[in-house]
Amino acid sequence: MSIATVISFGAGNIISYRIIKEGKDKIVNISMLYLIICSFVFSLISIFSYENYLFSFISLFIIQVGFSSYIKGQGGGALSSLVESSIYILLLLISLRFFYSGEELIIKNNFIFIITSLILSILFLSGVDFKNIDIKSGTDLIKLGFPIMVSSCLAVFFVNIPRLILGEISTHQDIATFSIYFRWAAISLIAYQFMNVVFFRRIYTSDYRKIDLNFSFIFIIVILCGLFSSSFY
Predict the structure, then answer these.
(1) Closest to 74 (Cα-Cα) out of 194, 205, 215
(2) How far apart are CA 132 and CA 152, in angstroms?
(3) How confident is the model at residue 209 (pLDDT cuts 50, 70, 90)?
(4) pTM for the model
(5) Does 104 have pLDDT greater than 60?
(6) pLDDT digits (tens, 9 = 90+) for 59-101
(7) Which uninterrupted H or E stretch holds 115?
(8) Which one of 77, 101, 146, 227 is most buried, by most CB atoms within 10 A?
(9) In angstroms, what is the C-alpha Rg of the chain?
(10) CA distance linking residue 7 with residue 58, whole number of Å
(11) pLDDT above 80 for 115
């Protein structure tokens, strides 16, 4: 996920926010095309290293984030949430298949990720307006995407830093225990992410008063989810 975050270069966030503010302009189109090319390259690499899930994971993660951002910006919140969960849905289905069959078919499972990435890429590509792309929009993508990419990497770092510190001063058992509690606490983050995806366009196209009310409502829901999850500790 961290590798895909760097490679995506903040293009997913650019797509969703610029669509609701500026429409599908040149920067949106070049961002879409950039993510499609990146995903396709990693799909090709994964074909030649079919026993390694890493490249197919990166390919699918890049395209699912970009495509879901595009749908989210267009107002399709529920569908966007489904697309953004593609990799997790596939992992769940593969895990269930492995649980009931007892066979781990690495090659077949890897190609499932590759095929899913290609299908999403084709659907995503159909939304690109090639007549509305130029070289300057590529430099704008770099200018806008770099701060987003840096902030996303810092967010990933700060989420994982407690485990890194525990790894130096404590035991593996303590790290495992912390990870379990952290995942329970993450229920509140899941609730926030779900509402941010489903109601994205409604939130960010409202006037300032409604935005304040929307965020207050989301904040209360997140706190309640956090309190609910803490009751299991």
Answers:
(1) 205
(2) 28
(3) confident
(4) 0.73
(5) no
(6) 888 998 888 888 888 877 667 777 877 777 777 777 677 666 6
(7) helix 106-125
(8) 77
(9) 19
(10) 9
(11) yes
Inform me whether the pLDDT recorded for 219 exceeds 90. Answer: no
User: What would the two tokens of residue 157 be?
Assistant: 């770092």
Q: Give the 3-state secondary structure of residue 186.
A: coil
Number of C-beta neighbours around residue 94 at 10 A: 17
DSSP labels, 26-78: HHHHHHHHHHHHHHHHHHHHHHHTTT-HHHHHHHHHHHHHHHHHHHHHHT-HH
C-alpha closest to that of 10 among 149, 153, 141: 149
Tokens 């994982």 belong to 160
- Which of 107, 112, 11 shows the shortest CA–CA distance to 65? 11
Structure tokens at 104: 């781990």
